[in-house]
Amino acid sequence: MDTVAGGDAQVRPPPGASLPAPRVVVGARTQIRASLVARGLRVAVLDDDPTGSQAVHDVAVVTAFDEGEYLASLGREGSVCFIWTNSRSLSDDGATTVNVQVASGLFAAARRAGFGLEIVSRSDSTLRGHFMAEVRALERTKREATGRGYDAVLFIPAYFEAGRVTLWDVQWVLVGDEWLPAARTEFSRDASFGYAASNLREYIAEKSGGAIRAEDVWSISLEDIRVGGVARVVEILERVTAGTFVVVNAVLYEDLEVVVLALAMVEGAGRSFLYRTGPSFVRALAGIEPREPIAASELWPLGRPPGHGLVVVGSHVAVTNRQLAAMRAVGGLAEVELDVARVINCRDRDAYLAEVTKRVIAALVAADVLLVTSRRVNRVAGGNANLKAARIVSTALSRVAGRALAGRPSWIVAKGGITSHDVAVQGLGMRRATVVGQVLPGMVSVLQPIDAAPEAVGIPYVVFAGNVGGDDALAKVVAVLRGKRLC
Q1: Is 172 helix (H, G, I), strand (E, B) or coil?
Q2: Does the residue 10 lie in any domain?
Q3: What is the DSSP letter of 250?
């Protein structure tokens, strides 16, 4: 087995011939689902932007912080509910507050209905987000609600479908045809959530401000999972205490399923764990089976409705810009730009947004419409100031998209995590929805709004993270919604 000599420059790229063979547990997902039911557990995912459901289907999404909504969505043993906190758009203090609010409501609902909870703090597979603030908030809330804390926090940022794996304790990101340690990607230079370490033990130490030493972070290696199997993982999980951080290495779903089977065993004996994860772990934790991508015929069994679609793009990362270029090259879209500088700085913002809305509605009569923020990134001093500016722009984009419902779009795509949240909640008035599945495997989720503005109920709402997909991914999504089949 290859080893890491230390430092990103000496880390060798992932999946290689020297890796142990995957350990496949026959019937693992069936066993996992049965265990959740037997223990009376539900899975509640606090999603820091709306893109965490990229790897699952037939689960609930709730945007309202309401115990009744939680109970309605978690009525069955083994059920899964994503609660959109949108905390990645907030300050550290704001993220703490919303996590405490949601978790307190979840624990109260569970106590009232008499079921147990698996809590997942779902964040970015490229390591952006309020890592330490959210983990500490959930630890404290669990202790106050139940009288005991977590034995460990498992850190599992893997997102296989998008090329994000954890190997040798390093988070790897597939960029084009090249595997890069996360700290060498554009995501590590995020204005609000930048970081220097790709090694996840070092990342935890970095985000703790030195309160946690890298050498005090535990690890479940690929050898533990693939060679030692469930028994070896159980051995590790039985030894961690007092909220210790544990990095979980994984490059395939089979790796995560071994870990989840081990978790079921030790949790059955009374242990308790919090999960800070990327999208892939949720599918493994709930034992959800994979499914084929959705076709237009499944979205509209009685035939595609008349009218045109709306694509709303707020993400500014390089991947999104390349996808925009590819989609524009295909053609067939009328484009309306929202000028970011004007939204942030002008005094006539309301009049400007009314003008943009009018243009979108008029364009929907004859074509699918691209509503896109100007591509120049307007940075301001300080991470919180950047987040505030981003919220202003996202709110403006959402207002336009919501008012554009008057143009009767037949489908809506939102590109970018914060954009997807704000368009759904502020624009479409969505409180609850069902994740039908994905247009692109494991990446682009289609939601069916259930409780939303009347004009939005039933419209396919496509959530597309800013930082995933190949250059032609956005064009492919639009093609499917136009009724074409992908080869």
Answers
A1: strand
A2: no
A3: B
DSSP state of 196: S
- Strand locations in 216-339 (E): 218-220, 244-248, 273-277, 310-313, 333-338
Q: If DSSP codes are grouped into helix, strand and coil, which group holds residue 73?
A: helix
User: Rounded to whole angstroms, how far apart are CA atoms 216 and 372?
Assistant: 45
> What is the pLDDT, as a whole number, of residue 25?
97
Least confident residue range of 26-40, 251-265, 316-330, 402-416: 316-330
Q: Given this model, what pLDDT does residue 384 score? A: 65
DSSP 387-430: HHHHHHHHHHHHHHHHHGGGG--S-EEEESHHHHHHIIIIIS--
Euclidean distance between CA atoms 105 and 389, whole angstroms: 30
Whether residue 323 is found in the same domain as residue 423: yes
For residue 246, the model assigns a pLDDT of: 98
3-state secondary structure (DSSP) of residue 3: coil
Q: Which residue has the tokens 């069936």?
A: 30
Other CB atoms within 10 A of residue 39 CB: 15
Same domain, 193 and 331: no
DSSP code of 462?
A: E
Q: What is the pLDDT of residue 487?
A: 55
**Residue 468: its H or E element:** none
Average pLDDT of the chain is 92
DSSP, collapsed to helix, strand or coil, labels residue 54 as: helix
Tell me which of 286, 320, 346 is where a domain ends.
286
Q: How far apart, in Å, are the Cα atoms of 16 and each of 13, 21, 181, 219, 249?
A: 8, 11, 15, 20, 15
44 contacts 141 by C-beta, under 8 angstroms: no
**Are residues 214 and 262 part of one domain?**
yes
Number of independent structural domains in the chain: 2
- What digits encode the pLDDT tens for the residues 336-349? 999 988 888 777 89
Quote the domain boundaries for residue 377: 296-481
> Among residues 245, 262, 286, which one ends one of the domains?
286
How far is the C-alpha of 69 from the C-alpha of 103, rounded, in Å? 13
- For 276-323, write each residue's pLDDT tens digit: 999 999 999 999 999 999 988 889 988 888 899 999 998 888 889 999
Rounded-to-integer distance, Cα 333 and Cα 421, Å: 23
Give this prediction's pTM.
0.88
Neighbours of 227 (CB within 10 A): 13
